[in-house]
Please model this.
Amino acid sequence: MPRRKPSWLKHLCTGRLKARRCAGCREWVAVDEQGPVWEAYDPGVLDAKDLTTAIILERPFTRIHQHTAGLLTLRNPCGARGISPDGQYLAIHECHRTPISTKPYKPAKRRPVPRWDSDIHLSDEDVRLFTELWRRPL
Model:
């Protein structure tokens, strides 16, 4: 019996990933429809412990790379390159097999932009020198 749609799947499926039901087993998957071959991923995010399980079970996976705008790109690791314990990964979906992980995807928190330091005080001489240089023709 297929599971219900995870509530956090909308955070994972932004940009290139789309939330769909698998045609074979009717489970919710994240589908990458951008390339010539559509790839379906289990929606659970793999961490370092789950990554070991995926390697032992020979399940292919891809790394989630989050950009500052909240958009995601997927990068396939090549051997040991591209694999790190602090990364987040998605395992390829295989019909009628239990997903390796059901951990929700949590987008990285945005850091606030540093504010202008209001403790800066310019002397009258600094302001005069700046306006003189600013108004000087090139």
Observations:
- Residues 41 and 92 are 4 Å apart (CA to CA).
